[in-house]
Amino acid sequence: MWFGYYYFDIYYFILIIPVLIVSLIIQAKLKSTFNKYSRIGNARNITGAQAAEMVLRYYNIQDVRIEHINGSLNDCYDPVNKVIKLSDTVFDNPSIAAVGVACHEAGHAAQHAEKYMPIKVRNSILPVCNIGSRLSIPLLILGVIFSFEPLIWIGIGFFAFTSLFQFITLPVEFNASNRAINVIESTGILSYEEKNGASKVLKMAAMTYVASLAMSLAQLLRLILRYGGNRRR
Fold first, then answer.
1. Dmax over Cα atoms in the chain, in whole Å?
2. Annotated catalytic residue within 53, 67, 105, 193
3. Does the pLDDT of residue 228 top 60, yes or no?
4. What is the 3-state secondary structure (H, E, C) of the chain?
5. How far apart are CA 217 and CA 223, in angstroms?
6. Is the pLDDT confidence value at 3 over 50?
7. Which candidate among 25, 111, 146, 225 keeps its CA 20 to 30 Å from the CA of 179?
8. How many whole angstroms separate alpha carbon 172 and alpha carbon 101?
9. How far apart are CA 151 and CA 157, in angstroms?
10. Residue 36 scores a pLDDT above 70
């Protein structure tokens, strides 16, 4: 019984494996969609870097730089240094996908410039989430080893902050994509058909954040079911 309880985790197979499979499918679909529209140039021959600059001008943002970084699908906005970092497949690529991704990252810059509320909330809980992500599992393990249930629940509680962070991240990412599409439409960066392609790329990218939240919630539920009721076993 002891071996079965600690080493056979039925909740992992019920909760984690299905979400993991769906997450892998979404990741594959994102790469496929991105690669498809990365091979299709836009009519105005606008690169990702140029598109990001156009979004910054649209929001009258003058203190954000645009830099090139190595890699693919690792584009990001650094709010501390106020830098939009665009990858090899986006920075100087005049494709539909590159424009969509670049405008999305510039949308994050606009969020910070306008002090978008979900961004402020996410930043306020970030320190606690970072601590929680590092301490949750060690505390839970110690609680199990010493059969000290309060410590188990503290570990689970810390892990819950990870799920909260993922939850707050969703509106941030969806809003950045909406800003990107709105600017693309307003300024005519892409044609109507091209805009639809960029929208497909951004929607698949957003689904990866949905999958991350689902995985975090599944893991949280697994911890509660497996360890939270330890006193009754």
1. 67
2. 105
3. yes
4. CHHHHHHCCHHHHHHHHHHHHHHHHHHHHHHHHHHHHHCCECCCCCCHHHHHHHHHHHCCCCCCEEEECCCCCCCEEECCCCEEEECCCCCCCCEHHHHHHHHHHHHHHHHHHCCCHHHHHHHHHHHHHHHHHHHHHHHHHHHHHCCCHHHHHHHHHHHHHHHHHHHHHHHHHHHHHHHHHHHHHHHCCCCHHHHHHHHHHHHHHHHHHHHHHHHHHHHHHHHHHHHHCHHHC
5. 10
6. no
7. 25
8. 15
9. 10
10. yes
Q: Are 141 and 151 in contact (CB under 8 A)?
A: no
Return d(Cα 1, Cα 192) in angstroms, integer: 62
* 114 part of the active site: no
CB atoms within 10 A of CB 51: 32
CA distance 46 to 54: 10
The answer for residues whose C-beta is within 8 angstroms of residue 21's C-beta and 6 or more apart is none
CB 194 within 8 A of CB 233: no
pLDDT of residue 133: 85
Q: Give the number of C-alpha atoms closer than 13 A to the C-alpha of residue 205, restricted to the C-beta side.
A: 27
Give the residue among 34, 20, 85 at the shortest CA–CA distance from 203.
Answer: 34
pTM over 0.70? The answer is yes
